[in-house]
Amino acid sequence: MSDNNTFHILALDGGGTRGIYSAQLLAKAEQAFDVSINDCFDLIVGTSTGAIIAGAVVSDIPMVEIVELFEIEAPDIFRKRWYRNPLFFSKYSNDKLAQIIAKHIPATPLSEISTPLMITSSEITTSELHIFRSNYVEKQSESDSLNGDICLRDAIIASCAAPTFFAPKDIQSHLLADGGLWANNPSIAAYTEALTHFEKEAAQVKIVSLGTGHSVSMYRKRKGWGFLSGWGGIKIVSYVMTLQSQASANMAKLLLKENYLRIDPPIDFWDIDTVVQSENLKTLAERDFTEHVSRIEAFIKRSV
After folding, report:
1. Which residues contact 244 (CB under 8 A, 6 or more apart)?
2. Mean per-residue pLDDT, 6-31
């Protein structure tokens, strides 16, 4: 049995369609250990596509079903619509995203979710971060007044609203966008939550942090570095979020040392709306699960 004082956290990166990597790795864990991921951690934290997976975890949805969600639904969510000029409209439809989330995630108010859950988002009107929380702490600030009546589905859609890809989500007059703008890898946010709201000591915290792949071929040397010619237009959104994930992972490793398990494979440049790499990502997840299986088992609650 593990020390009952150990606080186990699962932190799930954003990454659009690449979320199938995290879902597949967790599906392998459920099968190998004969557990529900919801029983393995004391706090679940997700950003963007990680928020979809986190919402499924706290809803006790088997991870194999979420793998299927990515396989079947991602091509529809990210179907190119040539009539949507990206200079004036978001690239994809929020309505389609909402319809698909509604098919797979229950309409549970955050206040009725018993598992401690954090979903990150960004309040773009006031330039502030926003965290949706399940009902595990008393109201701590004015922004927390949003949470009680907010549907899990709406929190997920807000967290998924990556700039230029989706329009911001309006919730109670708050204009909310992707949490990846500040916490694409939510490990540091999760660690802070453990120390503050849960009053844990630093040595008690263990985090499993799942990325969705970091590109090792994002940019190459060139002469022109204009917004379109060099930075690749909306490609820069993916770059900023990837950079945030790496920075958060580096800081978490320095703070938690051996209590931080980061699994995030190097990949070619596959943007967050790439729909043709699902099988490659699943293969990477199976490879990485096999490589890290003993460490993953050591990082989950052993009393389950």
Report:
1. 180, 181, 182, 183, 184, 185
2. 96
